[in-house]
Structures
1.
Amino acid sequence: MERVFVYGTLKRGERNHGLVAPYLLRVLPGWVEGFSLFALEAGEGRPYPYPAMVPGGGRVFGEVLFLKEEALPLLDELEEEGREYRRVRVRVETEEGPLEAWAYLYLEGLEGARPLPEGVWRG
């Protein structure tokens, strides 16, 4: 089983959640400290809006998805791991205590991105 902290289109009710739903074992709300969240609008190279999490001084809210291991290659492909996003380990605070999970950090520039200081993205 893998734990992945999601903060955007993979959350329940968002556009890409259906991709992970067949692999989903459990969901736990949580947040990470020391990161900033930005909204990226649809446009050149972006078929729809989605968020970008980068190291920073804030808190980002999302969900920890407990997934079957075979979901990770699918997520790496979706997130263009190594090109647009980098999969890293983060400490997630949850109502059940802290845990480690994978998260995808944005690697590209943030020109034109809208800061989300409250740490919440809604599609």
Note: The chain has a mean pLDDT of 96.
2.
Amino acid sequence: MQRKKSFVLTVIMLLTACGYHLRGAYDLPKGMKNVYMEGGSSTLREQFDSALKSSSGQLVDSRDKADVVLRIFQDEIEHRSLSLSARGRSNEIELAGHLEFQLVNAKHETLIAREPVDFRRAYFNDQQDVIAKGNEETVILKEMYQQVVRTIISRARSVLETQGK
């Protein structure tokens, strides 16, 4: 029994020493543990909340509780047909998104001026499996917004770490 405990303890120590962290977890800067988000789609808000929770941060419901305020402008997704079938239906669809964000600290000082983020993804639209395509589009949108969240956190980290020096 003592050996099992030692083995488990050793494995845990090795995993933490190598920098292992849960998938989706980010290394949040000190000034970004409590974030208030203004605007943005429900999908973006959901993905941002999930990313913060997995990284020991939180999306707060009031500006007063926030370390930083993330303002989202023009959160838009556009559907485009890239190719058509002989019947005139879309065979390939592109989802193109655009949003702009601004990061402000608790003192209302601008940390990141209004900055654009563009993202896009194409997928094949199988006319024989229409129901699954709706689900696939939802999954693709979530993945696209996860990438947007990574981009915003990365840009915020570089600004906040530069300020801390």
Note: The mean pLDDT is 83.
